[in-house]
Specification:
Blueprint (H helix, E strand, L loop, with lengths): L1 H5 L10 H8 L6 H5 L7 H6 L27 E5 L2 E5 L25 H12 L6 E5 L8 H12 L6 E5 L2 H4 L6 H7 L5 E6 L8 H12 L4 E6 L8 H13 L2 E7 L14 H11 L10 E6 L4 E5 L4 E4 L3 E5 L5 E5 L4 H10 L1
Parallel strand pairs: 2-3, 3-4, 4-5, 5-6, 6-7, 7-8
Antiparallel strand pairs: 1-2, 8-9, 10-11, 11-12
Helix pairs in contact: 10-11
Bound molecules: pyridoxal-5'-phosphate and iron/sulfur cluster.
């Protein structure tokens, strides 16, 4: 598998600019993903093929979400009081060129047994943490026995109600999602999975089967999509993706504004682009197919949802709203409600 997952990247020659990119941020690809590419500039190639633009580090940060600073023990990011993000894996099936954690690709190293123990100890002594999100890297690439042990240890902590696993495997290496893996994971319900799909091309017979394997194991499936310039910054493309996800029993969860990661500026879209897409999809595709649009703020301040404004004016007795077709309508207000509403809307 080691050779197989690395195939398709071409040779790395450190004397060229592209070689320098691959030296700094190694390329990782597999035959399945390569088969989804149509040209050098298609949305799939843009996501996974190294580009010289990655050398432009004039803006952004190596660790834009301040994950290292927010880690009380190695690999465990504790940003919100009641939940924790645990980076239990250092490996991904493919390297997404826009990745926020591309700083970790080179010299990737699994957490040691000692570090795993420290993470567990931290979670055990923090009863406020009720939700643990496993990520990485891709937790589903861990040896099944190790993942089983981690999940088992988490389940033995009474205050942890919900376990989540973030993975891109169903869309980028679907064959690795086996019924045996799903059968192991289902022992640890309530367990949610958050997948990662960026383009309708990723919806194939293979990814469909892989999501079915997980959904049939009773795992509620969500998905996050990164809004990427030249890949999916288009309402029709995202509408097709989100409905395609629903058809695989995957509920779109987050549409994410690009993080300000050094060397990924060429993927960044204006904030208005995301809002326009949400507006174009509103009421036009199924409500459950529309994710929340969020900015994960630089510095680790958390995710902020952005919603296109529908309130045009607040009067004492009524509010003026714009519908999805652009029609202006009014809705009556209760006595005295307008001040509160103004504060909520404009503060
Ligand atoms: C995104 C994230 C979570 C989970 O956030 P939700 O909005 O509950 O999905 C938790 N911790 C960190 C550090 C995160 O980045
Ligand atoms: S799957 Fe996620 S963590 Fe892995 S390279 Fe892609 S964006 Fe980064």
């Amino acid at each position: 598998m080691r050779e197989e997952v690395k195939s398709g990247c071409g040779g790395s020659d450190s004397r060229t600019a592209l070689g320098e990119v691959m030296e700094r941020y190694p390329c990782r690809l597999n035959p399945y993903l390569a088969s989804l590419m149509e040209s050098e500039s298609c949305p799939m190639a843009r996501q996974f093929m190294p580009g010289v633009e990655e050398l432009d580090e004039s803006s952004g940060w190596i660790d834009p979400l301040a994950e290292e600073a927010l880690s009380p023990v190695s690999g465990l990011v504790h940003r919100y009081p009641n939940r924790a993000l645990w980076l239990v894996s250092h490996e991904c099936a493919a390297h997404c060129r826009f990745c926020t954690r591309k700083r970790r690709w080179k010299g990737a190293r699994e957490l040691s047994e000692e570090e795993l123990g420290e993470g567990l100890a931290y979670l055990r002594k923090n009863p406020k943490i009720v939700d643990v999100l496993l990520s990485g890297g891709d937790p589903l690439l861990l040896p099944a026995e190790r993942l089983d042990r981690i999940l088992h240890s988490l389940r033995s902590i009474p205050h942890i109600q919900v376990i989540r696993i973030g993975t891109r495997l169903p869309g980028v290496l679907p064959e690795a999602v086996t019924p045996e893996l799903a059968a192991m994971i289902r022992k640890y319900h309530p367990l949610f999975m958050n997948l990662h799909f960026n383009h309708p091309r990723e919806i194939t017979a293979e990814s469909r089967r892989s999501c079915a394997t997980l959904a049939d194991a009773g795992i509620p499936l969500g998905s996050q999509t990164v809004l990427l310039r030249g890949v999916n910054d288009d309402a029709a493309v995202l509408g097709e993706l989100f409905h395609g996800l629903l058809s695989m029993r995957v509920r779109p969860y987050y549409l994410m504004q690009m993080d300000l990661t050094a060397g990924t500026g060429h993927f960044r879209t204006p904030i208005a682009a995301g809002l326009k897409i949400l507006l174009a999809l509103r009421n036009r595709i199924s409500g459950i197919a529309v994710p929340q649009f969020v900015i994960d703020l630089p510095g680790g301040h958390g995710k902020v949802p952005l919603v296109p404004n529908s309130i045009q004016a607040i009067h004492e007795d009524r509010v003026e709203l714009t519908t999805y077709t652009g029609k202006r309508c009014t809705y009556p207000l209760l006595q005295g409600e307008h001040e509160d509403l103004r504060r909520l809307q404009f503060s």
